[in-house]
Amino acid sequence: MTHIGLVSLQPLFYAPLIKFQPSITAFPSHPSLSNLSLFLSLPLHSSNVSLNLKTKAPYKMSKAVVYTVIATATLLIFIVLSPLNLEESKGRLNNRRFGYKILERAPTFDPLVTKIERESEQKNQQHKNDFDNNKNVAPRTGLGSTTTVSEIKETYEYLTSGGTLNTTLRLIILFPLLDRDPKDGFVGFNELESWVTQRALERLDYATQVELESKDKNGDLALSFREYLPDLSEKDIEKKNMAHGEAGWLMEKFDVADYDHNGLLNFTELRDFLHPEDSQNKEMLKWMVNDKFKHMDDYEHDGKINFNQFEDNVYVTYESYVDFETNGEGDIPTAKDKFAELDVNKDQFLSPEELFPIIPYVYPGELAYAKYYTSYLMNEADDNEDRKLTLDEMLDHEFAFFNTVHADGHVEIDDDDHDEL
């Protein structure tokens, strides 16, 4: 049967005395109609028709009754699919799409997958180095191009018969590691967030370690400005160009990250330099926010922004992330109310320090995205909406937890979901 919205046409074959005729069938094909248990089979040209209300017994009706029933059913459909409900559906859709954006920055859920990805990257890099050294080996790129899952010894016991990672088995193994406090057979939001945040911290540390090892030429476990940027000329440094990414800008950022002011960046300071959004150094956060201010229209370089600048450049991002975090059910303050709340000294301006409370929303880093990814996973897998996950719920939504494994990380969107955020 071909569905046309909530109405479909189907042939009805009555007794020989009644000719073939089309009929209208209304049925709950829309999720909002799940409680509408009205199935109509109404011939258009019969004086006596049958109304089937999920019973076997036919009921004889006059045309007037039939038309009344049709009108009532139509009214119910329009009520259920009113603009309010459609707007709610649109909100849920936008929230889901925002979740897809989160996946681009989310940490990898399974540490074993992280290991596979890193070993693949390392082998690809070695392959590239061999090619650069004229060893006539063609470079390859992409996960698994030089390393397959089966080549990593830790994966042997987790492979399917086809040699791919058995994500079902991985979830079964990981579940008790997530279910820790309390150990009650469920994974609550805090337990899930703790797990995901740990994965984000590991990724931050790994990225910092890779950078340190690649540039620390003298092996003192710290980087000077010259070690970090050996290709900058003295002329570039003397110019002190403060444009984004230029020598002066990089020197200023380096000096702020150098918390102990010894001219070197240790591991923690280097991580702050590379990922200021996740820094615990307040001076680093202040520098970052000031740097963001400079890109705002009509910014007067006085270290503060007014309400219009806040509303146009900051609030819209804040609102989007809060809406996602609360699954569209939170009471989000207006731009005016939020500005007043943040303006501690009531001078009608916001300083970088006054924006600190909402930095995870307006300038999110790895740790902030870990929290949003947690919300995404909970929203995707929590079928009964009790804010905790069972193993069955997680297994029913394997793709959400292993999106980089299934379909090469590609996120499938329904054919009719093409509107942009």
Short descriptors:
421 residues; flat; two-stranded antiparallel ribbon; 8 strands; 47% helix; disordered C terminus; 16 helices; Recoverin, domain 1
Structure description:
With 421 residues, this protein is an alpha+beta fold. The chain has a domain at 281-364: Recoverin, domain 1 (Orthogonal Bundle), CATH 1.10.238. The chain is 47% helix and 6% strand. It has helices at 63-80, 83-103, 111-132, 167-178, 189-215, 225-228, 234-239, 247-257, 267-274, 282-293, 307-325, 335-342, 359-362, 366-381, 391-396, 398-401, and strands spanning 3-4, 7-12, 21-26, 40-43, 49-50, 60-61, 187-188, 388-389. It has a four-stranded antiparallel beta sheet with strand order 1-2-3-4, covered by helices on one side. Helix 2 (83-103) packs across helix 14, helix 5 (189-215) runs antiparallel to helix 14 and helix 11 (307-325) packs across helix 12. The radius of gyration is 30 Å and the shape is flat. One of its GO terms (molecular function) is calcium ion binding. Keywords: Calcium, Membrane, Metal-binding, Repeat, Transmembrane, Transmembrane helix. Residues 119-133 have a biased composition (Basic and acidic residues). This is Calcium-binding EF-hand protein.
